[in-house]
Amino acid sequence: MRTSIATVSLSGSLTEKLTAASRAGFDGVEIFENDLLASRLAPEEVRERCADLGLSIDLYQPMRDIEGVPEEEFGRNLRRARHKFEVMRRLGAGTVLVCSSVHPLAVDDDDLAARQLSRLADMAQEFGVRVAYEALAWGRHVSTYDHAWQIVERADHPALGTCLDSFHILSRASDPKGIEDIPGEKIFFLQLADAPLLAMDVLQWSRHYRCFPGQGGFDVAGLVGHVLRAGYDGPLSLEVFNDVFRQAEAGPTAVDAHRSLLVLQEALGLADLPGAVVPTGVAFAELVTPDAEPVSEVLGALGFARTARHRSKPVDLWQQGEARVLVNTGPAARREGTGLAAIGLESPDPAGAARRAEALLAPVLPRRRAADDVPLDAVAAPDGTELFFCATGWPELPDWRGDFEDLRHTATDSGVMRVDHLALVQPWHHFDEAALFHRSVLGLSAQESVDVADPYGLLRSRAVTNADGSVRIALSVGAAPSDDTVHAQHIALATDDVVAAARRFLAAGGRLLPIPANYYDDLAARFEFTDGELETYRELGILYDRDAHGEFRHCYTRTVGRVFFELVQRDGGHRGYGAQNAPVRLAAQHLTGG
What we know:
Blueprint: E1 3-6, H1 14-24, E2 28-32, H2 33-37, H3 43-53, E3 56-63, H4 71-91, E4 95-99, H5 110-126, E5 130-134, H6 145-155, E6 160-165, H7 166-170, E7 187-192, H8 202-209, H9 220-229, E8 236-238, H10 250-267, E9 281-288, H11 292-301, E10 305-310, E11 315-320, E12 323-328, H12 331-336, E13 339-346, H13 350-359, E14 377-380, E15 386-390, E16 404-406, E17 416-425, H14 431-440, E18 445-446, E19 450-454, E20 457-465, E21 472-477, E22 489-495, H15 498-507, H16 517-526, H17 533-540, E23 543-547, E24 550-556, E25 563-571, H18 582-592
Helix pairs in contact: 1-3, 1-10, 3-4, 4-5, 5-6, 10-14
């Protein structure tokens, strides 16, 4: 289906918004009136610019407070409308959005509303314009889609139809099944937005918290299914009011927006995309650093050994059990400092995973590769982390370790078995985009978002996982984003005995994050422990949590640059990440500088 986006959904000037929409692959746009008013381009120039960019102008919006008003007021509305229709003629826009009235003089009279909308449609028809009447969820007298349709049906005018908006319908918990009773040719336009499920005033909810389909809690796909069964054949158009999107760069936001519609169409059986290739494990985590010594000291204390070196690049492979960490001291490290730059994801079909990513607007990154290097494709996650699709020990697939020369160093058993999860801090404007990216491109399942108290605000976190938990990525965004010691990324390492692993780490010269004594006093009140157990946790700085599935014990190393490590022991199928303990960890990192 054709895709469109309202210019209000993107930041920047009208020219910048149009360019971003075109480059992202949209077929058309809704021109928001304020964007036109603030533009130096005349309507004819906007029309030409859209044509040059391959964009149709699918809607001009909004026209407010038209119907259900006293005759004198309606006369003024018609004069206003005539001017708008003339602008639309110059723009080449054929449909105008009319929102249900919130005017204080509006009366609850469907017959009056229908007559006035019919008169408006008479005038619109003179200009070759259609009127799409939409029920605002906070409309004074018309606030549901079925009520709006009743008025349109009563007016019975060929140039008058309805506009359906997923937010206005789903925010009121209206049953969208009734949409199928509306003739498809009378659904003039469809606007789509998702939103997190919040208990708040619906106007504020709409104005600040809308997001793209798949990023919130609404069943947008289900609603679109009803609209299509009614016979609608117009574009799928996004209208998203969101404070974050309107401050972020227009280009990436437009790409994220178009990706959401591709995923939506796939869910509806309207798009034939390459199937998701769900990763089956973590092959490696790659750290970049200008100075390998501090990172090497931490890895050595954790029991890792430097087992191999890349043939042509300054990259070392450190390994303990099935956990692998690459340490890269190349040019990027000198620019960016120490941090987590890339993740290798085990894939049963690396080429298929890359095709899926490219179909969802995540192109394979160009790489400097020697002639005999193993082919290894990577894409960039929204936060810039490179995600490699690779194979480790698959007989029928090239093994990425073939690029490394064995140093014949063997790690001694430290209790570390594998990577339990990776925690990636997102730029403040990419949190929702990141969740959709990992779910749609990688085929991971997203868990519920949780809020964690940080000493300087709230931190939002959302985990994405595969079915068996062999890939777990915790995405977070929070307060004080400039504080790298607190909002550093980290690598969590699985062990079956965190106490023993922590003692080995300390004995090898490692430093663990100290935890305040008050935490353990509270722990004693919340849980019962065996004799000496709590004292051991207090001594080592081990945190503890328990849920219906099992127990979770974990502790943290001190931060190196923008990365730290976590030792994790899961017992009984615990599925969490220690969110209950996160405020304590964050406060401790603030106090100690990491």
